[in-house]
Structure formats: structure tokens, C-alpha cells
Design goal:
The structure holds two protein chains of two kinds. Chain A is built from four helices and four strands. By secondary structure, chain A is an alpha/beta fold. Chain A has a four-stranded parallel sheet with strand order 2-1-3-4. The two termini of chain A are 17 Å apart. The model of chain A has no long low-confidence stretch (mean pLDDT 92). By secondary structure, chain B is of the alpha/beta class. Chain B has one domain: Mannitol-specific EII, Chain A (3-Layer(aba) Sandwich). In chain B, helix 1 packs antiparallel against helix 2. Chain B starts with 9 loop residues before the first strand and ends with a helix. The chains are: A alpha/beta, B alpha/beta. Chains A and B meet through helix 1 and helix 3 of A and strand 5 and helix 3 of B.
């Protein structure tokens, strides 16, 4: 079974991307998708070159470059408010219910 | 495990009017205490300009400036309580500004060993009463205790 792959990016690749990645992993597990999704992290600089290997990019840094996959802003997960619509967008994009 | 907090890096009543002033004051402290290289200041300022770190915490604005690990000697988190709010641009949306009152400057040597720290920092940001206690901390020791108790 091919897992869905999510790439979480931030400016430095060491702080917010990691925090959001872990948050997403927990949410996926809670919703029963734990085995279906793989989450990785990277810097915004690496994002472009890695994008094609993923099904979705979630980022905490603003991005204006066109990417081969959908880019969703993940700052809501740091703030803890307004996460539901973002999560729906993520699940829809990955084809998960 | 060495603590990520040092009372000397708890700055209460930080007087500053701009983002640059806020970040430089905290970075200078980190350099003076040996936690980061001198290149850290420029890295933090550049990073904040390119990828802002202002966040609407619950009840008050916060910022979590940080820079590449190459500028860090030893991991630590400096905390600055601003005397009056300073406008930072919001993370992920530079059109929005946040009136920041509490700054958590992260000097982290590598990401994966600080996962739980980052997670608990997020919880702090989302905790209105805790943010209020942090903002109103009267002494460096009080602030140290608040941070150590809630971030691990």
C-alpha cells in the first residue's frame, strides 16, 4: 500500500516545521490515518527540489513560488485556532475521509 | 538533561521600539553568555525579515525568532517580556502584523532532539492564563520556574 506523503516546510527547517509535522502526525493517528500517511520536514529552500516526491506540502513560511503539488499554510496548527478548515483541506487533498 | 533555560536569559521589561532592537537585545545577551556565535544576530534579523515569526498567541501576541543551528554553540531559549508591544509581521502572512509582548528566542543546535520542547512551546502559546503569568512575571526566577515547569 502506498502511503500518502506530506512535506512540512519552514524557513530554517528546525523549529516550526518539526512542531507542525508532529502535530499532524498526532492528528492523523487520532483519526485513524496513522498508517496511511508519512510526514517529513525540510527548509523552504529545499521545498522546491523535494516537492515532486510528495503528495502535499504544508508550510509555515509564506510561499509565492508555484509548486508541482498543493501548498497549504499550516500556521493554524501553531496557533491552535482555525485548524479544522485547514485539516479538512489537507485530508481532502490527500483523499482521506 | 541540561536545562534549556538560564535566568540570565530572562529579560523582564525589555525596552525596545522595533523588531531589530528587540532581536538584537536578546541576541546580544545570548552572545555574551556564550550560547551563540556573533553571526547569530545577523542570522536572526535576516530570518525574521524573510520568514517572520509573529504569532497570535491566546490573549497576547508572541514571537518565536530563531536561526540556523550553525550559529548556535549550545541550545537554549531566551525569553524577553517587552515593556510595550512591538509590531512583528505574522508568520506565513506578511500582510498581517502582530503586537508582540512576549518573545521566545530559540537557539537550538538541532531540531530533532527538541521536538517535545517545540510542542510544549506551542501549548504555552495557546494557553491564555499561562501567557498572562509569563507576561506579568516579576522576577527572573519566577519566569524561569514558569518556563521550566511548562516546557520540557
Amino acid at each position: 500500500m502506498i502511503k500518502k506523503r506530506v512535506l512540512v516546510a519552514c524557513g530554517t527547517g528546525v523549529a516550526t516545521s518539526v512542531a507542525v509535522a508532529r502535530k499532524l502526525e498526532n492528528i492523523f493517528k487520532e483519526r485513524g490515518f496513522g498508517d496511511l500517511v508519512e510526514v517529513s520536514t525540510c527548509t523552504v529552500a529545499e521545498m522546491e527540489s523535494k516537492a515532486s516526491k510528495f503528495d502535499l506540502i504544508v508550510t509555515t513560511a509564506h510561499n509565492s513560488k508555484p509548486m508541482p503539488v498543493k501548498v497549504i499554510m499550516g500556521v493554524a496548527f501553531l496557533i491552535g485556532r482555525g485548524t479544522e478548515p485547514v485539516l479538512q483541506d489537507i485530508l481532502d487533498t490527500l483523499g482521506l475521509k | 538533561m541540561t536545562s534549556l533555560f538560564n535566568p540570565k536569559l530572562m529579560v523582564l521589561d525589555l525596552e525596545a521600539n522595533t523588531v531589530t532592537e528587540v532581536l538584537t537585545r536578546l541576541s546580544d545577551r545570548l552572545i555574551a553568555e556564550g550560547y551563540v556565535k556573533e553571526s547569530f544576530t545577523r542570522a536572526i534579523l535576516e530570518r525574521e525579515t524573510e520568514f517572520s515569526t509573529g504569532l497570535p498567541g491566546l490573549g497576547r501576541g508572541v514571537a518565536i525568532p530563531h536561526a540556523d543551528p550553525e550559529h548556535v554553540n549550545a541550545s537554549v531559549i531566551a525569553v524577553g517580556i517587552l515593556r510595550h508591544p512591538v509590531q512583528f509581521k505574522m508568520m506565513g502572512n506578511h500582510d498581517e502584523t502582530i503586537d508582540v509582548e512576549v518573545v521566545f528566542m530559540l537557539a537550538l543546535k538541532e531540531s530533532h532532539s527538541h521536538m517535545s520542547v517545540l510542542q510544549s512551546l506551542m501549548d504555552v502559546i495557546q494557553n491564555e492564563s499561562l501567557l498572562k503569568q509569563i507576561k506579568e512575571a516579576a522576577t527572573q526566577d519566577t519566569l524561569l520556574q514558569l518556563m521550566s515547569a511548562n516546557i520540557a
